[in-house]
Amino acid sequence: MMVLTGYAVLNLLARAVGGYADLPRQDPVSIHEARIEQLRGFLPPAGEVGYVTTVENEKIFAAERAFRNVEYLAQYVLTQYTLAPLIVRNSPAHPLVVGNFLDGPPPPGFLERHRLVPLKDFGEGLILYGREPGR
Amino acid sequence: MIFFSVASLLLAWMIGLLITWIFFPAGKEKAAGILLRLAAAGGLGIGVTSCGYFVCLLAGLARFTPLFDLALCLALGLVWWRRRRRSGARGPDAAAGRTPAGSFLEKLIAALSAGGLAAYAVSFAAAFLKEPHGRWDAWLIWNMHARFLYRGGERWRDAFASGLDWSHWDYPLLLPLSAARGWTYAGGESVLFPALLGFVFTLLVLGLLLGALWLLRGRTQGCLAAMVLMGTPFFLTMGAAQFADIPFAFFMLGTFVMLFLSERSPDHRAGALILAGVAAALGAWTKNEGLLFALVVTVSLAGMAAHAGGWSASFKQTGRFLAGALPVLLIVVYFKARLSPANDIMEGVSLAAVSANLVDWGRYTEIARAFFFTGISFTQGVVDVREGMRFNPGAVSVLLLVAYLLISGVRIDRQERECFLQAGAILVLMLTGYFFVYVVTPLDLHWHLMTSLNRLFLQLWPSAVFLAFMAAGIPGQRAPAQGAPAAASPQAKGSPARGKAARKRKDSK
Predict the structure, then answer these.
(1) In this complex, do B126 and A20 lie within 8 Å of one another by their Cβ atoms?
(2) Predicted confidence band at A11 (pLDDT cuts at 50, 70, 90)?
(3) Pairwise CB contact (< 8 Å): B144 & A84
């Protein structure tokens, strides 16, 4: 019993120490958080904003449920995690919309269809949009 | 900043200590008793102060939480001091046994366990450096909720009506409130504090397991059990991941330990049962599964007590348990009734869908298969959803416990038979409950199993390890264990004269 559990504990330690050298300087969540933090000065402290990304909004959760892609959902959740208590809706139908395009541009015509115009480009695929009033 | 957050934990610990002293007075405790008390107090204190913080939030007095905690600490201190004066200068003698010197092998096992703990702490630190915000559910649920509660100010309630269903706003608040409470003490957020909470709860589970088994079965059994837990990769992963599963595992284990202590310590039966009630209710304040746990413990306690001593004994014991649970359960009920949105599983359930799922035998097969593979493999770590369920038992698994029990044999004393039956019934009923939640779930069954079943098993794992080592025969057992309370030591348990005296005292109450 002692040998087996001791082996298991040392195995964990070896993996932890072995993996230490490969650790990035900053973890992915902190990197994403620093990116999204730039938005804060341009957004209201409370209330709601919209969200758009590389795929249409309804595909964010569907891709995760089908085990196809968790990145879109992770990026959306981390945007909300960073901007709390501001509510980030998974929808383009808001006066202010966060565009998070880490994995590529939105589908062709998507922004135009939802009348989203860029207000500020923060670089690295992060863009704040405003919504033009409907005609 | 982190200094004040740590101060919030220390004050919580003090409150927990006072609660355990009030309901389970201390005598001349030695290492095992002190360790058990410190571990139990740590978790209970964090849980109780999270309830206090919730009350402060409701009253709009969150910024006065440190004052509230201090007042609670002083009030409990006063109660403890008065009780102590009334019962004499000392509590009941908890140090009846001599301290055995221990053989070379025992000392070696203790030394290896200490080394294992150091190695475990290093592994934990490395896991934290890799993911300081924790894993998926930490920032999707627990730490996200903490941020809303802390940053929301006067409008903290808005988050519950936000419609962000994917963040599961119906989940209980012990962990988010504890993080927010620490930030309130510090006057600002730190990513370190939720990680520290994860580390503290992981250590508390280890300390509680080691302390309880050391007290009830001897130091070697305690050390071996702690090594089993430390050698469980998934236990480390989930502790560092900052999920609520390890805190919930703590409260489950705490409930089992208190139930056994109530059986072993007739003089303090009422206090131990009250503390078991507090622990079970705090489990319900940690995770939704805790509601099932609190119900199952109440029913099994009532049933076993009725079977052993009739309905009068059953009412008395269940009443004590509920007296401990009720204050916390009232907070849980308030939260569920007034703030929490509907649960995603319950919301999607319709009678027709449940009926259809209940007679879909294919679901039973899929769930049973998942239970089998996960039951054998869950200790190894997170399931790779792309690979699916597969056989992966590793060095530490359920099979190791089974092998240990086969080699050491099972020795359950007559006095403890009911307690084991009760504990076994609780575990079986919990597993049955989980099984049927999967049968009726409106969520995609495969997705639901893959993303949750291994964590459900992990919640039960420390309790299962505790029960296995409680049941294991101890070759060449010496008695009593160090620091064991008079009625809780293996010597007392094995002594017919003491057993009779204890039963007499019990009957006369």
Answers:
(1) yes
(2) confident
(3) yes
